[in-house]
From TrEMBL:
Pfam families: Aldo_ket_red (PF00248). Transmembrane segments: none annotated. It comes from Nostoc spongiaeforme FACHB-130. Keywords: Oxidoreductase. This is Aldo/keto reductase. Residues 15-310 form the NADP-dependent oxidoreductase domain.
């Protein structure tokens, strides 16, 4: 499988990442109701079988359970796995030591001595300055506990500042993890994508299927199937679904020619942007197999242009 380098001269990973927010999370994902450890173990195994060995987690996912599950599953395989996790700059974390301590706890839960990527979960650092934060992360690169430094939800200006602080230490900023899909293209119009290209920063795209809107599963005719937060989200209402119908229709049309699903076409479009890795959240082996169907083929230039054109209303 082809691989992508995270930023400049740092780890190489598959062009698709497995998201583990739902692993152990009861609040948003109802962990323990319709899925549990067995389903997550099967999802992990299916990912490795598909060659997708890059996993994204965070200390806050499932209050640490996501990292614990991932660590347990990694221990049961001899296959190399690349792990990305995240540090939450909470108000009471205002020293460099608090950053290192959080990393230590994540590594314990993951049962690892080193991870490929450590990301700052959001840009609001409260009493912790970006200088202290980035310099501590550079220290951890030198200590060998992390291979690459990343940020998440940073604006173009915030990304540039982090890049500059790290550059003084000779450490490249590897990634910026942002919400990016055909229905959330604001990262293009806000300059984040252009700045990332300029700086050599890889984009990790979370919610690449717009909470499932791009799967084609939800239509104005089957609103009664909605559950949880989708019931009150206007994007999943009749008007919202009617608005995206032309997009789903085009994805379906292109997919039918290639024996692919609308979701697989949507993920492939992101990969085709270059230097973009979609993070596909999964709970089951079947979801992994579906997402992995976005790999091993490429949209042609005309298809990419068609999809770009029809989704321009979502640039702003």
């Amino acid at each position: 499988m082809e691989t992508i380098t995270l930023g400049k001269n740092v780890p190489t990973v598959p062009p698709l990442c497995i998201g583990t927010w739902a692993w152990g999370d009861k609040l948003f994902w109802n962990y323990g109701s319709d899925y549990g450890p067995e389903q997550l173990q099967a999802a992990f195994t299916a990912a490795l079988e598909a060659g997708v060995t890059f996993f994204d987690t965070a200390e806050v996912y499932g209050m640490g359970l996501s990292e614990k599950f991932l660590g347990q599953f990694i221990k049961q395989t001899t296959q190399p796995v690349q792990v990305a996790t995240k540090f939450g700059p909470l108000p009471w974390r205002f020293t460099g030591q608090s950053v290192s301590d959080a990393l230590t706890e994540s590594l314990k839960r993951l049962q690892l001595e080193r991870i490929e990527l450590y990301q700052v979960h959001w840009p609001f650092a409260f009493f912790l300055s970006q200088e202290t934060l980035m310099n501590t992360l550079a220290d951890e690169v030198q200590r060998g506990r992390i291979a690459a430094v990343g940020v998440s939800n940073y604006s173009a200006a915030q990304m540039r500042e982090a890049h500059q602080i790290l550059a003084v230490r000779g450490v490249p900023l590897a990634v910026n993890q942002v919400r990016y899909s055909l229905l959330t293209r604001q990262v293009e119009s806000s300059g984040i994508i252009a700045t990332a290209r300029e700086l050599g920063v890889t984009i990790l795209a979370y919610s690449p299927l717009a909470q499932g809107l791009l799967t084609g599963k939800y239509t104005p005719e089957n609103l009664e199937k909605l559950s949880g937060a989708r019931k009150i989200d206007p994007k999943f209402g009749k008007e919202g679904l009617e608005k995206i119908a032309p997009v789903i229709s085009l994805l379906r049309e292109i997919g039918e020619k290639r024996d692919r699903t609308p979701a697989q076409v949507a993920l492939n479009w992101l990969i085709a942007q270059g230097n973009v890795i979609p993070i596909a959240g999964v709970k089951t082996a079947e979801q992994v197999k579906q997402n992995a169907g976005a790999l091993g083929w490429t949209l042609n230039n005309d298809e990419i242009a068609e999809i770009e054109k029809i989704t321009r209303p979502w640039l702003n």
